[in-house]
């Protein structure tokens, strides 16, 4: 049986899951692949923390550089996250002739083009299934299964924390702040949850998906990103009453010579399969010219789900090493595509006003919207109180985003 040596950088939640998979399912992996995966070394700066797995202490090192110079290691797995020193470690591993597996979506979003160029120069591959979707094989689907398709549209619910918060706001009628605090106490949200609730994590993943679909790296600063902090439980309930589910949506669409890439809360019709994706689950809806519509669904985060994706990549790297298969990195192309401006977005809009309940208010609002060629499709007005402001909820017909912003101003 062929043997492939693996070196692991990072012994945290995901790293522990990877080691557990080696220990519990190592024989199963060997039976299925004909390859024996040999975990040679684990590098980390903290070995005092208690972990749910035990390993031979001779495997543990504090210096990741020891993995790059070890001839027994052919695949290096980076699981420390962040930009630095993760980037330097990956570049050193490639230069040392190792294949690389990473779950680092932030690093790929910011430096993916540079890393892919380095892998091409080193004639080694970077595998990154675990960077998007946890245990959902969305990367493999785009890179391999749908290779014969032009994937024109990707819609995704790609952040489990944000989706969990929106689900609980609907189910329990609580405010964003209360649900976030409860999610943090239960461990579903980080103490600093800004990456999740402000859409940053979703943007990192969307950049990777867009690269795979369109061979085009997009700068983080070029994407429209809006999180869920401003959403109230009123908005959630009004959405339900109007027949919609409110989700934080990642969008990548090719339209002629433009790419439309954005992250923002969106109203999904009840008939849309993504509208029923709740809790910590993720899902991806794709449209390709040959496959038509396709959807992938599952756990998008968590130590075990992400570790499963890491193991899948290690197996792919190992097959490349022994020559049974090879998955080349996709190289960016000069496609001439332009990034669509959010102000040119043409869509229906949800608006909630707080207005004093008196004659003429609705007519005044409708007049301003009409001035900017925005017509009203449906409306709700809850409560009547002449002394206090009451909510007025409107769904518009399709309009340009810049028209809407001008009207609101």
Question: Could you characterize the architecture of this molecule?
Answer:
This protein is an alpha/beta fold. It is 37% helix and 26% strand. The chain has 13 helices and 18 strands. Strands 7, 8, 9, 10, 11, 12 and 13 form a 7-stranded mixed sheet that branches. A 6-stranded parallel sheet has the order 3-2-1-4-5-6, with helices on both faces. The chain has a 3-stranded antiparallel sheet with strand order 15-17-16, covered by helices on one side. Helix 4 runs parallel beside helix 9. The model has no long low-confidence stretch (mean pLDDT 92).
How many whole angstroms does the radius of gyration measure? 24 Å
Task: Give the overall shape, derived from the CA principal axes.
Answer: elongated
> Helicity, in percent?
25-40%
Q: Tell me how many strands there are.
A: 18
Helix/strand class: alpha/beta
- Note the beta-strand portion: 25-35%
The main β sheet shows up as: 7 strands, mixed
Number of helices: 13
Distance between the termini: 69 Å
Low-confidence stretches: none
Q: Which whole number gives the mean pLDDT?
A: 92
């Amino acid at each position: 049986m062929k043997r492939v040596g693996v070196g692991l950088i990072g012994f945290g939640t995901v790293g522990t899951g990877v080691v557990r998979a080696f220990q519990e399912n190592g024989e199963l992996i060997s039976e299925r692949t004909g390859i024996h995966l040999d975990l040679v070394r684990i590098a980390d700066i903290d070995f005092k923390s208690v972990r749910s797995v035990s390993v031979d202490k001779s495997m543990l090192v504090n210096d990741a550089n020891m993995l790059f110079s070890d001839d027994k290691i052919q695949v290096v797995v980076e699981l420390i996250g962040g930009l630095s020193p993760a980037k330097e470690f990956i570049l050193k591993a490639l230069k040392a002739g190792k294949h690389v597996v990473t779950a680092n979506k932030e690093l790929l979003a910011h430096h993916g083009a540079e890393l892919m160029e380095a892998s091409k120069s080193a004639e080694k591959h970077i595998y990154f299934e675990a960077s998007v979707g946890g245990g959902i094989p969305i990367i493999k689907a785009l890179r391999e299964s749908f290779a014969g398709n032009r994937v024109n549209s990707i819609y995704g619910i790609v952040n489990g924390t944000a989706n969990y918060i929106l689900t609980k706001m609907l189910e329990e009628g609580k405010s964003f702040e209360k649900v976030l605090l409860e999610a943090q106490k239960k461990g579903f949200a980080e103490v600093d949850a800004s990456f999740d609730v402000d859409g940053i994590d979703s943007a990192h993943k969307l950049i990777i998906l867009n690269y795979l679909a369109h061979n085009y790296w997009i700068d983080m600063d070029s994407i429209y990103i809006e999180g869920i902090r401003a959403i109230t439980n009123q908005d959630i309930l009004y959405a339900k009453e109007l027949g919609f589910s409110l989700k934080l949506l990642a969008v990548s669409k090719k339209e002629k010579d433009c790419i439309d890439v954005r992250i923002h809360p969106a109203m999904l019709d009840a008939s849309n399969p993504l509208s029923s994706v709740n809790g910590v689950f993720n899902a991806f809806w794709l449209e390709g010219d040959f496959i038509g519509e396709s959807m992938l669904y599952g756990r998008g985060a968590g130590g075990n789900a992400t570790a499963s994706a890491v193991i899948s990549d290690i197996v792919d790297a190992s097959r490349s090493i022994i020559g049974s298969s090879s998955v080349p990195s996709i190289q960016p192309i000069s496609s001439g595509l332009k990034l669509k401006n959010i102000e040119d977005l043409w869509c229906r809009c949800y608006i909630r006003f707080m207005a004093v309940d008196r004659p003429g208010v609705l007519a005044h609002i409708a007049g301003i919207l009409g001035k900017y060629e925005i017509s009203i499709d449906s409306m709700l007005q809850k409560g009547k109180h002449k002394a206090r402001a009451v909510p007025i909820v409107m769904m518009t017909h399709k309009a340009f985003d810049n028209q809407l912003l001008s009207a609101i101003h």
